[in-house]
Each structure stands twice: as structure tokens, then as C-alpha cells.
Amino acid sequence: MNTFKTLLLREWMQHHFGWLLLGGVPLLIMVPLLMFGQIHFGDEVPPPGLIALGFAAGYTGFLMALAGLVVAFQAPGLARRDQQDRSIEFWVSLPTGHVQSVGATVLMNLLLMPLMLLGLAVLGGLLAAMLAVLRVHGLAGWGALPWGTLFSVLLAGVPRLALGLVLGMLWLSPLLMLAMAASAWLKRWGVPVLAAVIGLGGLFLREAYDQPWLLDGVGELFTHFAWAVVPTGLGTMDFESSPWPAGDLGQFGAWIWKDTQLVLGDLASPLFAVALVVAAIGFGLVVLRRMKA
What is the pTM of this model? Predict the structure, then answer.
């Protein structure tokens, strides 16, 4: 366990500056924009509570989308990082297993880093919310905020977002791990070959043999990922009765709990079991390639 913690610390020491920049630069851009820019709502200005919630959710969503792009971009290269910087001989000489080394890299970069950015996104979202209310309603707007209700929304929403992030990464783990494995074995051609196999191979199966399972399966993975990450009641939310348009934020806690139950129940899908098996195969291929380095 101590060795695994050390491997996690290695990832933090190597990449924490870039991760903190990713979480901090959008905030540095957002603050002056909210302080000195123009905020327009049209003819009807929303109450302070909805403004706070909207800006907090918007900033959090933006930063998490940015984190998702970073994860998708850097994941394939993680498997070849030690070979590229010629440090593989040093790392394999240490008394650490290949499974531990790959596991620490995957855990830190694909899960713990996004969770850290989620925490920074929430803090930045709270600051964005307070600045937006101040600009639109003045100091009186802070006094008019339903602090108790907003606290309950925060208390229910943040754990749901963290859970959704973990589950979302599990849903996409087969694609991420296959991308890592392809890059490990085929180097720079790995991702293009994988994309061709899935895209062109899927099209060929669908058109030539009427077998759309490959393309449909990939599409389903992204659908379940979206359901996990974004609280929407698994696509069944009735927006006319949801707490958002009416401003009945007091019902948010009950609604988010129901959504959490639906998302956890979604794990019973056979597709989720298949996804974990494929991800495990991809992980094994990465470990095998590292053993042969």
C-alpha cells in the first residue's frame, strides 16, 4: 500500500502544476469578466437564488467539460510516457509491480485528477454565483439569497456530481483503456487504428452483415456516461414538474436522491459488465506491454 501511495505521489509531483493551472486559469478569466462585464437577462430578471444556482452550475459544468477533454486527450499517451522520456529502465528497476505502476497512473490521471478539478470547479462556481448576484441585485441580493436552501442543494449536488464522475469514468473505461493499450503497442498509430477498427469496422458490420452491435454499443456507452455525469433522471426528467423552472429548490434534495438511485440501478445493465471486462482486457494489454519494455 505504501508503494502504491508513492506511485500516486509521483503522478502528483509530475503533473500537479498543470492540473492546478487547469483549475485556476478559468477562474482568473471568469472573475474580471463577472466584475466588469455585462450581464443581461432580458425583460425578466431571475431571483437571486436562481442566478446563483445557474452561474454555479454553469461554471462547474464548463470546467468539468474541460477536464473531460484533457482526460480524453492525454489518456492514450499515458501508457507510453515512460518510454518517451526514457525513464522506463529506472521505473522497472524499482521494487514495484507493473500492475501497481499502471494502476497508479490510471487512478490518478483518469479519476483522482478529475475529482480534484471537480472540487476546484465547485469552489469557483460558488465565487461565480456570489459575483453574479452582486452584479445583478447588489449587496441586497446576498441578503435575499435562500442560504439554507442553497446549502441543501450544495450538500446534495456535490456528492451526486462526484459519484457521477466515478461512474461516468467506469462507463467510458473500455474506450479509455483500449486507447491506452493501442497507443502502448502501436505508438502514434494506436489511436487512429483503434478509431478505424471501431468506426470503419462498425460500419462494415452494420452495412454488410446487418450487425450494428459495435456502433450501437459505443453509442450506448456515451449515453450511459451522460446519464451518470449529468443529473437528468436517466433521461426521464419531466422538465415541467422539475424544481428548476419553478424555482422550487427545496425539492432538489429529494429529486437528486431519486436520480442517484436510478444511476446506481443503471449499473445492473449487462453492458456495464461487458464494459468492465473490456476495460480489464485493455488494462492487461498495457501491463503486458510494460513488462516487455
Answer: 0.87
